[in-house]
Design brief:
OB fold (Dihydrolipoamide Acetyltransferase, E2P); BirA Bifunctional Protein, domain 2; elongated
Length: 451
Amino acid sequence: MLEDLIKERFKKLENLRRADIDPYPAQTPLPIRGRIRGLRKQGGLIFIDLEWQGGGIQAVIKKDLLTDFELWMSNLDIGDFIAVRGEAFTTEAGEPSLAVKQIVLLTKSLRPLPDQWSGLKDPETRLRRRYLDLLFNPELKELFVKKSRFWDEARRYLKTAGFLEVETPVLELIPGGADTQPFITHHNALDEDFYLRISLELPLKKLLVAGWEKVFEIGRIFRNEGIDAEHLQDYTQCEFYWAYADYEELMMFVEKFYQELIAAIFPGKNDRWHRPWPRVEYYEVFEKYTGINLGKAAVEDLMDKAKPFSPPADWGRGRLIDLLYKKLVRGHLLEPCFLINPPAAVEPLAKRRPENPEQVERFQVMALGTELGKGFSEANDPLDERQRFLEQMRLRAAGDREAQELDEEFLTALEHGMPPAAGFGFSERLFAVLAGRPVRETVIYPLLRKK
């Protein structure tokens, strides 16, 4: 059936070309133009519902007003793009319309659009042919308009606060700034393997060494990890770094930042987010839901507790703590809060707490059982940072493929001196959670397996 409809449209294409009508002209000579979304042919009249200027207009082609009426009667289809000129009038039913005196074909559609009433039902087809899903789903289209405004508002807020927007390379010799596996590519001109960046962190912190005090970037990062409702392999992330600030000052900034961002884009969610955010101690909430005191627990205790989740035998303390936290703790943090002061083993780039060097000055923005941003006082002691990187390398050698790699260039930058600083990052997961959708549905073209 579909093949027959396509063949019919190809015939109409040839009919138009034989009539010396260019079905794909470069210019649009008339002011009223758009896609035909409805088409009704009645005797000497053609009624066209034309999508125009974000809305619609009814164009009426009358046989006595157009010399090539029969050509258009036989060869126009829903989905075609046209431009028209004419005179406004009101139909007997009281509908404002346009009596067409001139018509120009802009694009001949060779495939029929999905039925406007049933639309696209198969979820995978909707994602693969997102352009059709957007065409028939105004609510979805508005979602992406809102997402654009979301990033515009984030950018505006940071710039108003004095942060400089920069761009750093997507290709890196050493992936750094996160615990995850990278994607690998080959640079032909340099004959060198590179990694697609997994974070924006290390290049931005080098700019603090360079003398800037407030920098940020909004860009794509790439993580070769699993697919679920909260994770993508390539996505947009915002990170900013602030010299001479610590995580206490950063928490106050982030709370206000999120509240203003949400008020601007999701005003209906103000109540939940505009209450003061409590601070939840990582050690306390971890013990509450796992029964493990992190100040006393050995690796063997953590491994024993994690057995139901089948962790690899070579995992170290940090990875086991993170696994238990994600499986047993995170889902209980439903209201907006700051989860603070985790073990140093789970965050090798954060500054140690003076009160307890086994903890770091880190916070996570938590709500609805998921992480919606993370920040910390940045580690800037190059000797301590080297030891923590070496521990990560030991874990890699033992089989942990997500442990971080030692980056000598970054350590060299720290040895030149990086001021005390705080940094924060959040991804488009924040938008997805606020929109109440799985993150893949808030991406225009999510990555899919080859059909």
